[in-house]
Amino acid sequence: MHVIHEKFNQGKVLSIEGAGDNKIATIFFEGVGNKKIMLKFSKLQIVE
C-alpha cells in the first residue's frame, strides 16, 4: 500500500504490527528510509 505523510511525503507500507490503538506501521520513505509510525497519531493518506 502506498501512503502520503505530511512530513515525509510518499511512502510504501512494509508491515503493520500490534493491535487496536497500538498498531505501528513500518513505512519506507524515499530519501528518508524506514520509519515506524504509530497509526493512531499519524495523518496518513492512502494513495493506493
Through-space gap between termini: 6 Å
Report the sheet with the most strands, covering strand number, pairing sense and barrel closure.
Answer: 5 strands, antiparallel
* Strand residue content: over 45%
Order of SSEs: EEEEE
Order of the strands making up the biggest sheet: 4-3-2-1-5
What integer is the average pLDDT?
Answer: 94
Structural class: mainly beta
Number of domain units: 1
Runs in which pLDDT lies below 50 for 5 or more consecutive residues are none
Number of helices: 0
Number of strands: 5
Shape: globular
**What's the gyration radius in Å?**
10 Å
Which key terms come to mind for this protein?
single chain, 48 residues, mainly beta, five-stranded antiparallel beta sheet, 5 strands, 56% strand
Would you write up a description of this structure?
- There is one protein chain.
- 0% of the residues lie in helices and 56% in strands.
- The chain starts with a strand and ends with a strand.
- It has one domain.
- It is built from no helices and 5 strands.
- Strands 4-3-2-1-5 form a 5-stranded antiparallel beta sheet, with no helix packed on it.
- A hairpin with a 3-residue loop joins strand 1 (2-5) and strand 2.
- The radius of gyration is 10 Å and the shape is globular.
- It is an all-beta fold and 48 residues long.
- The model has no long low-confidence stretch (mean pLDDT 94).
Question: Layout of SSEs?
Answer:
Blueprint: E1 2-5, E2 9-17, E3 24-29, E4 33-38, E5 45-46
Antiparallel strand pairs: 1-2, 1-5, 2-3, 3-4
